[in-house]
Amino acid sequence: MKIKYLFWVILLSLWSSNLFAQDLYEVKFSTNGMDYKGLLVMFNESKIYMRVGYTDGEQTYRVVQVDYTSEQGVSQGKEYLILIGSNPKFVTAKGKYDYNPDHLLFMGEMDKPWVIFDLNDINNSTIASSFKPLKKGAVTERYLRSFYKSTASDFLAIKRMFGIETPTPTPEPEPEVTHNNKKATLHLVVIANTAITDIGAGCNVDKRNLISEFNGVASTLGVGFKKYIVEGSSFTKSQTLATLNNLSPGSNDIIVFIYRGHGFRWSNQTETWPQMDLRTNAYTRLSQNTTLSLQEAYRLIKSKGARLNIVLADCCNNDIGINKVNNSPYMQMQSKNIYNAVKLQKLFLETKGDILSCAASPGEYSWVNSSIGGFYTVSFMQALREEGSYLNNGVPNWSDILNSTIKSAKNKTNMCRNCSAQNGKYYSDVK
């Protein structure tokens, strides 16, 4: 099998499986009489690493870190996902032997990968003896010490993620929230064109995932949660405006508005933000009665006086009537990072201001898949989880989330076989 014409994809059949459903996996394999144990840590499809521990020919225990990116293709009628290793670095002393990066190949519905030692010689490989997700309660500090030094930032982060406590004479308390959570409510507004024939299925996937995601955010923060969904036959300009006009947030509240549907530009439009197409039938005439500009929605939401306003649109920003749907099968590479409540507090409770962002720049298309939804929406949830996870060792901020969203969505289209690149844009005034 020659590895070429690879593209990023997410397979629906694996969406609910254990494969890549969380962040940490253990991989075991053997070759040349030596046993290897790897700890695979995943952030997203292009940011993955594995710590590999083994005893070498000098009878010395070594640990090396290998970086990974994911690619996929089709061989002999079967889809495959390969994690390509690079840049091996020794965590322990190197010894006299180098370490060639391993590559992990998943074929079809395999629950254990092939471990390939040389991409130029696919026969130089073996099937992993074990591949399993690591769950809370099954990971100990001693286990983690076989991969990390006790002072490593990821060692400490993973301990917190899995609730591993180390008694100390003077334990440091978790930082307290400076805001009164009980007085804050997260208002989620999703305008999703779930009834239209071409992109409706993908919009429906996004709607479900967004509700679940932000309900989880609100639950983690201990704040109120209200959702306002405009979909199906109610997907109209009048219903959208009524929903926005009826919003009544408190001064400490958060509004998250996300539009999922078709977008376009008027032929004489100079404004860079797209128009939202609020029709469920392509035969309905496009007019001022069936459209709403993203900027107008932003101004209306901002006027409500909430502390934090996040306004996003996953839609095209190009010609009227052109739809961009990619219905290739997709393989799940979205991590399910466990939220760190303190980091979420910094993002949602200790900030104020306004955010406006869309999936595509003027003249570009936004891509959607009926199985996993819009590339921009998926990338936004990835970026939010990464920035708010225990494995983020920095201070979380919205600019990093938005930049990561745009970069990841573009990366997905670049690696998609038939997609044109989309370059999202954003405006942020958050303090």
How would you describe this protein?
Helix 7 packs across helix 8 (398-415). The chain contains eight helices and 20 strands. Strands 8-7-6-5-4-3-2-1-9 form a nine-stranded antiparallel sheet, with no helix packed on it. Helix content is 22%, strand content 29%. Strand 2 (34-44) and strand 3 form a beta hairpin. The protein is globular. By secondary structure, the protein is of the alpha+beta class.
Note the topology.
Elements: E1 24-31, E2 34-44, E3 47-55, E4 61-75, E5 78-90, E6 103-107, E7 114-116, E8 125-127, E9 130-133, H1 141-145, H2 153-161, E10 185-192, H3 200-221, E11 224-230, H4 237-245, E12 254-260, E13 263-264, E14 275-277, E15 291-293, H5 294-302, E16 308-314, H6 341-348, E17 353-358, E18 368-369, E19 373-374, H7 375-387, H8 398-415, E20 425-430
Parallel strand pairs: 10-11, 10-12, 12-16, 16-17
Antiparallel strand pairs: 1-2, 1-9, 2-3, 3-4, 4-5, 5-6, 6-7, 7-8, 13-14, 14-15, 17-20, 18-19
Helix pairs in contact: 7-8
Q: Unreliable runs, pLDDT <50, ≥5 residues?
A: 1-22, 167-178, 327-335
How is the CATH topology of the largest domain named? Rossmann fold
* CATH class category name of the largest domain: Alpha Beta
Q: How many β strands by DSSP?
A: 20
